[in-house]
Amino acid sequence: MSLDKVTAGTGGSSSSKPARPVRSHKVVFLGQCGTGKTALIRQFVHRTFDQNYSATIGMDFVGKLLSLEGRQLRLQLWDTAGQERFRALMPSYLRDSSACVVVYDVTSKESFDSIRSWVELALEGRSRRDLLLVLVGNKIDLEAQRCVQRAEGETLAKDLSMMFFEATAKDASLVDAVFHGLAEGLTSEHHKPESDDEIVLTMQPRRREAHDRNKKCC
């Protein structure tokens, strides 16, 4: 999977080559404070890991354009605060989302026990068919402190009809596997949203050609 960032836009074309459609999906990250939602996103988008923890205030947003089996896909990644005082704001963030990624810390039983409430929040007023749900057990590098076993996460994910992954934000390959699986789920024939949350963008041919010339392997 290519993780190159490119510029996308809309507009006319002077080239005879048709512009390739870019499908954009809003993906909201949910979970208790301190589970590593921000760290996962930063590793995927910026290839960085910051050991110093800083709680997200309200909401943060970043976009990533990637190529999956020759198809362009843009993920709009919404990083939400896990503190209780921000829960009232969640419905507005969840509106028109294509997918929700619920993150728990494998060293925190409390964060694992809260998953059902986050899923209920994500599905509030939504059709289950509209929303792709992903469960991620984070911080598996802290194996000695683990209190939630992989089998427990797999069982809960199956019960809630969620995709399941374990990862650590310190390992880019494991983080990529999460987002690769998410992208595949969004483009799957089995996931056909009934809402209008899926946006189709068009990459301008000139910008696309410049990207093709300058593209580097990551």
Report the top-level CATH class.
Alpha Beta
Number of E strands: 7
Segments where pLDDT lies below 50 for 5+ residues? 1-16, 194-207
| Strand residue content | 15-25%
Relative helix content:
25-40%
What is the terminal-to-terminal distance? 10 Å
Shape: globular
Number of helices: 7
Please write out the topology.
Blueprint: E1 21-30, H1 37-46, E2 59-68, E3 71-80, H2 90-94, E4 99-105, H3 109-113, H4 115-123, E5 132-138, H5 150-159, E6 163-166, H6 172-187, E7 199-202, H7 205-214
Parallel strand pairs: 1-3, 1-4, 4-5, 5-6
Antiparallel strand pairs: 1-7, 2-3
Helix pairs in contact: 1-6
Q: What would your notes on this structure say?
A:
With 218 residues, the protein is of the alpha/beta class. It has one domain: P-loop containing nucleotide triphosphate hydrolases (Rossmann fold, 3-Layer(aba) Sandwich). 30% of the residues lie in helices and 24% in strands. The chain has helices at residues 37-46, 90-94, 109-113, 115-123, 150-159, 172-187, 205-214, and strands at 21-30, 59-68, 71-80, 99-105, 132-138, 163-166, 199-202. Strands 1, 2, 3, 4, 5, 6 and 7 form a seven-stranded mixed sheet that branches. β2 (59-68) and β3 (71-80) form a beta hairpin. α1 crosses α6. The longest helix is centred in the C-terminal third of the chain and has 16 residues, at 172-187. Residues 1-16 and 194-207 have low confidence and may be disordered. Keywords: GTP-binding, Lipoprotein, Nucleotide-binding. InterPro entries: P-loop_NTPase (IPR027417), Rab (IPR050227), Small_GTP-bd (IPR005225), Small_GTPase (IPR001806). Residues 1-20 are annotated as: Disordered. One of its GO terms (molecular function) is GTPase activity. This is Rab6 protein.
